[in-house]
């Protein structure tokens, strides 16, 4: 059973195409990431799915229904949080959450609001106006609002932008905890690769309004069979450099006692390192870098599918 | 439409009013200034010409309030949602545009009634003018028609805001003042130049104020038709509602709700 099914979604503003032919299906309980640079079409896609923007073409199904025919039921099961739009700036955090708790007709609203404020470290700011908060505090407030109705589907649009690293990590953990507790479906957008990798079961790469690839982060990373190895030597690097050149290995850089090179296959790595350690190159430190989602994204964006 | 969601939005506008000095200020400030200016002007005219226009001026002023407040409150509260970019959160929740507008209309009406009773007391204290000498049925039906017309204008302005964005926000404050000279609030229809009479006759507001004058000042020769006013105001309301609905669809299409203005 799919929570969200999107087929052939298209949106343009005049001659500017924001999203074209976007299709994906998100299973119930899955955390699905939309990843891409600014202007890739992530927010436009989310806005069409949440009913804030009318699509030019394509179909959307949420929880098995056409949302256009059943918005009220579907929106009661949806939570939306974004860093781009704060809650009403004239109202305090608590006043905003009270209003939304009444919109969603939440029972024991005060209890729920207090618990969310505590979880997001906003208790001491509850009676402060949104307009007087820092951007990180505002973002956490919209997350509280998103989680308030205990949604079955949670839309998180760039919801960690502006958070300091510690709070961002706590926020990601909160999202994971909520997901583990409720098994809700999450559509998560970000342009931070590590974040998407940490949270998402599957990832869709978007660029210039198109989906370039959809897969798990593990499968996506396997697309690039490349590792970067950095060795620090006790003596000079000349001997090792010529050894690598003889083997036609691409050397990325040589800096005093540090040499960095690139290998194409995992099997090759083990074999080569064995040879290096068996010879007298005086290696005192070693660092192996696996391809990151950033590398994958750049690779896909440059080379296409 | 769900009443609990309308109540939630009423609570939101109550909180906004509570937290915002200018929202409280505009319930009292401009109406009081108007009362003082028109009161003093009427006294002055009476001194130099023995003409007593106090009842006409203050009566017109207190009832025009319902057109002005109703139209402006709808437009300004929608604009505030635009300024604060909260339409994103509002319309990604189960709130429907009809619930949003209903809550603003109800809240605006409560604010109008509050200002009305405050001004009525003030006028009585300052000038011994008692608005309740107008027959209650006529007063109530006049308030109803004028409020409906204000709402129709508010819906129309909101439709324009949704269609063209904040660049036309000046209309939120000015449209009622464009209509006012043709509505014969402070003078009879016969005082208008010939070219303006057909425009004035179409407006339900003119019919209301002419009817009021025909009752309060029978010798003035004013003649209004409240039934015409009621039918025409309902037509205005239906037209403005349709325009708003179509503008909302357009706003969702051109990204106005998500700030793609």
Describe the structure.
The complex is a heterodimer of chains A (305) and B (261). In chain A, 37% of the residues lie in helices and 29% in strands. Chain A is of the alpha/beta class and 305 residues long. Chain A has a 6-stranded mixed β-sheet with strand order 5-6-7-3-8-9, sandwiched between helices. In chain A, strands 11-12-10-13 form a 4-stranded antiparallel β-sheet, with helices on one face. In chain A, a hairpin with a 2-residue loop joins strand 11 (250-255) and strand 12. The radius of gyration of chain A is 24 Å and the shape is elongated. By secondary structure, chain B is mainly alpha-helical. Chain B has one domain (3-258). Helix content of chain B is 77%, strand content 0%. Chain B has 10 helices and no strands. In chain B, helix 3 runs parallel beside helix 6 (136-164). Chain B is globular and about 60 Å long. The A-B interface holds A 13, 43, 47, 50-54, 71-72, 75-76, 78, 80, 82, 84-92, 95, 98-100, 102-105, 129, 142, 145, 155 and B 2, 4-5, 7-9, 11-12, 15-16, 19-20, 80, 84-86, 88-89, 91-96, 249, 252-255, 257-260.
Write the topology of this structure.
The complex is a heterodimer of chains A (about 300) and B (about 260).
Chain A: E1 2-13, E2 16-27, E3 31-35, H1 42-49, E4 57-62, H2 71-76, E5 78-82, H3 93-103, H4 109-119, H5 135-147, E6 153-157, H6 165-182, E7 185-190, H7 193-199, E8 202-207, E9 210-215, H8 217-222, E10 227-233, H9 238-246, E11 250-255, E12 258-263, H10 266-278, E13 283-289, H11 293-303
Parallel strand pairs in A: 3-7, 3-8, 5-6, 6-7
Antiparallel strand pairs in A: 1-2, 1-4, 8-9, 10-12, 10-13, 11-12
Chain B: H1 3-19, H2 21-49, H3 54-83, H4 87-92, H5 97-127, H6 136-164, H7 170-179, H8 197-202, H9 204-216, H10 226-254
Provide the domain count of chain A: 2
> N-to-C SSE series of chain B?
HHHHHHHHHH
Distance between the termini of chain A: 28 Å
Per DSSP, the total helix count of chain B is 10
* E-strand count of chain A: 13
**Helix proportion of chain B:** over 70%
Q: Sheet bearing the most strands of chain A, described? A: 6 strands, mixed
Structural class of chain A: alpha/beta
**Overall outline of chain A:** elongated
- The overall strand count of chain B is 0
Oligomer: heterodimer
Using CB atoms under 8 Å apart, which protein chain pair has the greatest interface? Answer: A-B, 36 and 33 residues
**Uncertain stretches of chain B:** none
CATH superfamily of the largest domain in chain A: P-loop containing nucleotide triphosphate hydrolases
């Amino acid at each position: 059973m799919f929570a969200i099914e999107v087929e052939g979604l298209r949106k343009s503003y005049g001659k500017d195409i924001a999203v074209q032919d976007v299709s994906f299906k998100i299973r119930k309980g899955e955390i699905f990431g939309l990843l891409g640079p600014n202007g890739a079409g992530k927010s436009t896609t989310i806005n069409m799915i949440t009913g804030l923007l009318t699509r030019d073409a394509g179909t959307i199904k949420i929880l098995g229904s056409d949302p256009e025919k059943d918005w009220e039921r579907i929106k009661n099961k949806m939570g939306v949080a974004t860093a781009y739009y704060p809650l009403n700036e004239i109202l305090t955090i608590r006043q905003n959450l009270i209003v939304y708790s009444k919109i969603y007709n939440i029972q024991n609203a005060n209890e729920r609001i207090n618990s969310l404020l505590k979880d997001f470290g906003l208790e001491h700011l509850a009676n402060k106006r949104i307009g007087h908060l820092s951007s990180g505090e505002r973002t956490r407030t919209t997350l509280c609002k998103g989680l308030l109705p205990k949604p079955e589907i949670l839309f998180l649009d760039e919801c960690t932008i502006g958070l300091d690293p510690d709070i961002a990590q706590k926020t990601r953990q909160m999202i994971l905890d909520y997901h583990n507790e409720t098994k809700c479906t999450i559509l998560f957008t970000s342009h931070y690769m590590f974040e998407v990798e940490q949270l998402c079961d599957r990832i869709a790469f978007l660029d210039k309004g198109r989906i370039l690839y959809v897969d798990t982060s593990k499968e996506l990373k396997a697309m690039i069979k490349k590792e970067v190895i950095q060795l620090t030597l006790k003596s000079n690097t000349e001997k090792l450099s010529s050894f690598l050149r003889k083997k036609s290995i691409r050397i990325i850089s040589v800096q005093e006692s540090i040499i960095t090179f690139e290998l194409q296959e995992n099997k090759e790595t083990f074999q080569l390192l064995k040879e290096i350690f068996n010879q007298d190159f005086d290696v005192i430190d070693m660092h192996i870098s696996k391809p990151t989602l950033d590398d994958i994204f750049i690779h896909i964006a440059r080379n296409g599918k | 439409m769900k009443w609990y969601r309308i109540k939630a939005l009423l609570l939101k506008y109550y909180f906004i009013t509570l937290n915002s000095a200018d929202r409280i200020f505009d319930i009292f400030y401009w109406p009081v200034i108007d009362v003082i200016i028109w009161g003093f002007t009427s006294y002055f005219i009476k001194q130099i010409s023995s003409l007593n226009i106090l009842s006409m001026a203050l009566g017109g002023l207190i009832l025009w309030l319902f057109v002005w407040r109703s139209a402006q409150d709808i437009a300004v509260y929608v604009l505030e949602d635009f300024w604060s970019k909260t339409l994103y959160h509002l319309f990604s929740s189960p709130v429907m545009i009809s619930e949003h507008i209903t809550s603003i209309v109800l809240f605006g009406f409560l604010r109008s009634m509050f200002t009305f009773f405050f001004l009525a007391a003030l006028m009585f204290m300052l000038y011994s003018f008692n608005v309740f000498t107008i027959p209650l049925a006529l007063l109530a039906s006049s308030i109803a028609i004028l409020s409906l017309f204000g709402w129709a204008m508010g819906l129309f302005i909101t439709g324009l805001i949704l269609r063209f964005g904040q660049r036309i926000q000046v209309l939120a404050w000015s449209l009622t003042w464009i209509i006012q000279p043709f509505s014969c609030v402070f003078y009879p229809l016969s005082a208008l130049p010939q070219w303006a009479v057909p425009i004035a006759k179409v407006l339900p507001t003119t019919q209301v104020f002419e009817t009021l004058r025909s009752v309060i000042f029978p010798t003035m020769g004013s003649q209004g038709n409240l039934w015409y006013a009621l039918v025409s105001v309902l037509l205005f309301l239906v037209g403005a509602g349709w325009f708003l609905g179509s503008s909302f669809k357009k706003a969702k299409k051109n990204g106005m709700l998500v700030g793609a203005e």
